[in-house]
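Lipoprotein
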Amino acid sequence: MKKGLILLIVATVLVACSSVKRSEKALNKGAYNQAIDIVVKKLQKDKTSKKSQELIPILEDAYAKYTDQALSKIKFLEKEGNPDSKKEILTHYTRLDQVQNKIRPLLPLKINGQEATFQMNDYSSQLIQAKDDYAAVLYNEAKKAMSKDTKLDYRNAHKSLNELQKIDPYYKDADQLIREAHYLGTDYVFVELKNATNILIPQRLERDLLDFNTYRLDDFWTEYHSINRRDIDYDFEVNLEFRNILISPERVHEREIPVEREVLDGVTYEIDRNGNYELDSLGNRKKIERYVVVKGILYETTQSKAITVNGMVEYYDVEKRQLINSHPLESEFIFEHVFATFKGDERVLNKEEHKILRNRPMPFPSNEQMLFDASSEIKNRLSAILKRNKFR
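Predicted structure tokens:
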């Protein structure tokens, strides 16, 4: 127990020494914030220990230098008068206030009985003014961007207004402007299905293919519609055009499969010359497995029917009335069902063959059903095309 206590004391001393060295190193490099963080973290645990006496002067020095550095930078930026500097000024005042709030709960701090000096300032007026100044810059940036009347500028305006609302949620008409910027910055895409084949596509299938809730395509700046809304000026159109639908005849293929295997037919026991059973090392009678060759014929029938759908996904710029891009789309679905009968010794059959024997003939799917069966793959391929090929 005594040894454990000694180790704990040694570890504590080493950690304290490490804190002093690390904070001094940060201070000497001009990383005042880092030095403050190291010392504050240590003093929060114990501000009256012997090692704390070495840390308090470091904190005092780092705080004074950080405050002087930040206020000097603010003074320079204010003299410069660049609107782009308003955010930096706000950041400096915010950090000054945060640093004070880290140290304030630890005060008073004493070095050898003498109270250390930490000049605490009230930055509330400066913070309010800096927020107002930065908010005005963001608001003006947004208004200027929106006046350019392009999608990307509306999106930039939205970014500025979003930043503005973090500072002041009720600033002027920012709430209305951010909704307007989002609406005007969004790409609206009308998707239409066209059938250039001689096969009728059921309306239910068309609705299913154009159900974009299942595609999860919409993002913050893109909205897909399958119904043309008169109140929206569409930016892009996507045409999903079926150009060829091939449906094969219903096919039935029969074949005879001779099956022959060696199977276990029973066991006998070894007998010695005296007519006694031979025993193994455990005292059990030695077995001799007896195998025989069994045969049979599997009469297998395969029903099959296939559909192939070929099409094209075309992207159009509505304003320019121009084809932007096109992507081929192809899907295939094969219906296949196997059943069988058997003649012979059933011991010859394996598990898979037994399973096939339990199957019965099935009605062939209709052409309409084949289209629906193929639609799942069509949707997957269409979704992949739309996700890979964004508009901006």
